[in-house]
Batch of 3 targets.
Target 1
Amino acid sequence: MAGWSHVTILTIAIAMMALVAALDVETGTELSVSIFYLLPVGISAWFTRGSLAGGVAVASAALWLAADRLAGVAYAHPLIPLWNALVRLGFFLIVGSLLLALRRALRRQQELARRDPLTGLVNLRHFMAVAEEEVYRAGRYDHPISIAYLDLDDFKDVNDQYGHHRGDQVLRTVATTIAGNVRVSDTVGRLGGDEFALLMPETGGDAATAVIEKLQAALRSELAVAGHGVTVSVGCVTFSQPPASVQEVIGQADRLMYEAKRAGKDTLAHAVR
C-alpha cells in the first residue's frame, strides 16, 4: 500500500467511509460502528503523509452526522448534532496528526539506523544490504559491478598528534569529498574507523579506474588544503561475471587495498575478475 498513488488511497478511504456510513444507518441507534471511521482517517494520514487526512476527516465527520440523521437519531437541541460533528472532526484530526507524527518519527529512526552519525554516510549494515541487492541485480541482468575499498594512510598519526577532534574533521572531509565526486547511483559507506567503501553498479573496469583516479585526486587536493597530512590507498575490484557473494566482493577489494598500501600508499590497486 505504501507504493500506491494518492488517488488509490483516496478511493479506498471513500469506499471505507461509505461502507461504515451504510452500516451505521442499517444498525440504527442500538449498535454503533462509527469508530471504524478511524480506518480511512488513519490510512490517509499514514500513507499520504497527511496530505489527504484533513479532507477524509471532514468527510468522515459529515458522513457520521448524515448517518445519524438517516438512522433517526433524536436530539434534545438542534445544535447538538453540529456540536457532535465538530467534536468528532476534532477527534479525527487529532488521531490523524498523531499517526502522521508517529510515521515521521519512525522514518527518522529508520534513517538514523542506516547512517553513520559522524559522516552522514551509510553505515556498514546498510552498505552491505545495498551491495547484496546490487550483486543480485548484476547477476540477473549480466551487468558488471565494481567496488572500491578506501583506507586512510597515516590516520593514526593524526589522532595521536592532534587528538580525535582533528581526526573526526579528517573523516568528515573524506566523506564529503567522496560523496561529492560520485554518481547518484553509486553508494558510499563508512565501514568503520578510517575505512570507506564505494559501490559502483553497472561499472566496468575502465570506468571504475577513471572514477577512482578522479576521486583520489580530489581527496589528495582537499586533504592537502586542510593540512591534514593524510592520503588514501584504494583497492578496487570489478566483476564482469557476477560474484558469488557480497563477502567475496568486499574481501577482494580489501585485499587489493592492502596491496596498494604495500606498494607505497596513496595508490590504487585494481583487478578485473
Target 2
Amino acid sequence: TGEAAIRRLWSEGERPTAVVAANDAVALGCLRQLRAEGCRVPTDVSLVGFDDVEGATHTDPPLTTVRVFKEDLGAIAVRRLVERIERPISTLEKVIVPVELVIRESTARPLG
C-alpha cells in the first residue's frame, strides 16, 4: 500500500522530493501517510498517480496522474486475443498505448 511504502521510506531515512505511485489508489495511500508524517503535498513532496480514477480530482490537493485510455486498452486486448485464436503460434509483440499526463495540484515545479 501507499501508506506502507511511505513508512518504509521514512524509516530508512529517505525523504524524496517526489513520489510516483503505481496507480492512483497507491498514490492516495501515500497522500494519507505523507500527511501523517507532517509533509505538505506538493510543498514538501510532489505526488503522481497512474490511472486517473474518478476520485483523483476530489482529493486535497487534486492528484496529478497519468490518464490511461481504458477503452483503447480493451480494444487492443480483444484484437490481440482474436489474433492469438486465429494464429495460436504467433510471436509476442510489444504494444505501446498512448497515455496523457494530467497535471493537477499535487505536484510542484522541480527545485533548482
Target 3
Amino acid sequence: MSSKSLILAGSLSLASMGAQAATVTPTSYDTVNGNTGTYTYWDDTYNGTGSTTTSGSALSGGTGDLTDGVIATGNWFAPGETGKYVGWLNTDPTITFNFAQAYDFTAVTFHFDDSNGSGGVSQPSLVNVNGSGFTIPTNPGSAPFSFTVDLTGTKTDTLTTQLFRSNSWVFLSEVTFEADAVSAVPLPAAGGMLLVGLVGFGALRGRQAKG
C-alpha cells in the first residue's frame, strides 16, 4: 500500500471511530414562562433574564427546567411530578435553543405529558423545528411520552421549535439533543499523532525510493 493510501485509510478510520451519535446540550434557550392553574407550571430553575414567577414572562439567555436532565415519569398532578413540567395555557410556545457551535444534528426528543384531557392537558398535535412541521402520532393511554424528530442533515447552532397544543394546556418536562460525534468532538490528540506518523512514514518511503 502506498503512503498516500495509508494516510487516507488512517483518516477514514479515525472518522469512523467518531461517527456516532452524542448527546449535546444547549448553552441557552429563549421562550416564554409557563402559566399557573391548580399548581404553578413555571420554569422555576431558569437562570437567564426574565421573571420565573410571572406567567408568560419572556425568558432569554439562560437554561432551566427544560434542559436540567430531569424527565417526568408521571402525570402533572402526580405527587412529586408537578415541578418537573413547564406548562403553557392557551399558548403554542416557541422555544429557541442556542448551542456553542454548529452541530450535525441527528435528533431532538421532546418529553411531554398526556393526561388524556384531564385538567385540559393533552399531547400536542404538532411540533415545528426550524420551519418543518412534524405531526405527533396519537399517544396510547394517558402516560407521559417522548417524541423524537429526525434531524439528519441539519447543521446549525440554533434550533427554533414550536409546540402546537391540541387542548388548553401543553406540558413539557425535558428536551434532549443528539448530534454526530465527529462534529461535536475535536480530533483526539492520539489521532492527530497517528496522522503525523503516517505522513512521516510516507516521507521516509519517498526518500528511500529516491536513494
